[in-house]
Amino acid sequence: MKITSKGQVTIPEHIRKMLGLLPNTEVELEISGDALLLRKASDNERPGKALVTHMRGRAEAGFTTDEIMTLTRGEE
Q: pTM for the complete prediction?
């Protein structure tokens, strides 16, 4: 297996299937001596989930759903 000029490697299909690594799966890397360990990121470490958790409850109730829909549709 070789690293491309962009620093990419291809994980063989049988390994991806065995570990359930689908496209867009978040992974983490860990260095152990001269070895590199790749594993699925836990739910707590996934950036999307962290963002949603961070934003939950921060919105201010300033518009009704109908007002938001009117704004997004460009209606007056």
A: 0.50
